[in-house]
Amino acid sequence: MSAELAQQIVNGLVVGGMYALIALGFTLVFGLLDKLNFAHGEVVTLAGFIAIFSVNMGLSIWLTIPVVIILTGAVGIIIELLSFRRFTSKEGHSVSALSSFALGIVILEMVRLQWGATPVQLDIPKSIYISGTVLFGAPIPWIKFAIFSISIFLMIALHLVMSRTKIGRSIRAVAEEPTSARLLGINTTLVTQYVFVIVSAMAGVAGLLIAMQNGIVTSDVGFTFALKGIAVMAIGGMGDMRGAIVAGLLVGVLEGIAFSIGWGGISDVIVWFLMILVLLIRPAGILGGGRQAETRV
Amino acid sequence: MTDSGPETNPPGTLDGTGKPVLEIDSLTKAFGGIQAIDGVSLTVNDGEILGIVGPNGAGKTVLINMVSGFYRPTSGSIRFNGQKIDGLPLHKVGRLGIARTFQNIRLFNRMTALENVLTAIKQHTTHPILAALAFAPSRQGIDEAMELLDLMGLTARANQGAGELPYGDARRLEIARALATKPKLLLLDEPAAGMNEQETGELIEDIRKVRNRLDAIALIEHDMTLIRALSDRIIAMNYGKIVAEGSSKEVLSHPEVVEAYLGTDEEEDG
Fold this sequence. Notes:
Chain A is mainly α.
């Protein structure tokens, strides 16, 4: 393996982990409510600036993690309340999409008012980008391993919450059969709130990780990553968590490979065309576990 | 048109106190111009299994849907152990102690049989946040869930996906899951639908096994074998009204019931 290819594959995995974190948010909300949350991406942006603010206040970058989780989790509650709670009719899907789209723009513009539209430096020691190890001849800074490990850790944590805890079982119950779940005493509103807190906090950590990787935060970062997150969600199968993780890493690596063979310019075309193909040929996603699987007879 | 009929089943013959568990008074439900329920009053008493029969479209399922909180009544009231429950959200109705099964079984097919029951088990910890975050359900919760699976003969199926269960087992699991909420009243909506004679026989035994865990059962069914075997009292409905009420013998031989409904069913029953 060439050093260039190894470098790009590692980069792809790191970026793919962040795609997966964001796509998990889309897919969880979609699995629960059949709705797309277009404010999701701006939580990523907001988190980056929360990180900048916290670091400027003197917190270490690692201590910003809980700050970001708490604040973006709270934003999740607001998103649910403003753009999802009330819209339960048949048209609710479109209304929530529109409302969350608008809310996303409001968040974005508020961020721009505060921090401007130009890139802002994240004030962390430059040394973390330099010290590292060598894999297949390519120098890889430790920070990439740290970022990737945090992504994987969050995915494992999410998996454990979903599979082992009462709230996880409730979320799965409401996602699959809301009527039965409610009759069994599960409060669907509360479950929906939990989900928005979880997915927003995950998007928040993703935003923080992106800021750490780039060393700067720009206000369009959420838009860029959320678009990719939507593609990853669709490729992974709408509502399929494992699919979102696999698709996230796959898309990241595909982009990396495209760059290493000089196809960087068309990497977006490749990803989005892949999404079109998956929707046509495998609508339930690459692992076949998405929502479409249930409606197809 | 209501035939209140002589009450031939003295409440004293049953396990319970005979006090009303569910009281429905002058209930109506209109969907647009269609009167789905037209002035129904009935009670389900402690200790009894009430059978509700009637042709398709008679309003039986609409009635159960109103009791379990799906629909708000157009007028009239529903009381459960004296408390007014019409208009309550579904999860509150569930928490008060009403459970149900569905005509088309509605399990969590992507979960195992055990997880289906665990989802419904009440918490043993007191703090809701601790309860939500508690890893691995408490030993007590798992024991309770396994006990219910044992009761329904599903021990060997505990870790199987609910979506893979054969029909009879899926129905048993739905009943086990309903029992996990520790309900006082169980509503069964055509539990024998789609079952053959042998499966129906097993279902009758299963329902007999669980009845002492409940205050009362209300049962909608077309299968007369099941209705005769289980009901302490029967209500017949047609066009959204009660047309007959009493013992199974009285109701099932009532001319209006025979005409509206049983004529065709008796042929099937052979």
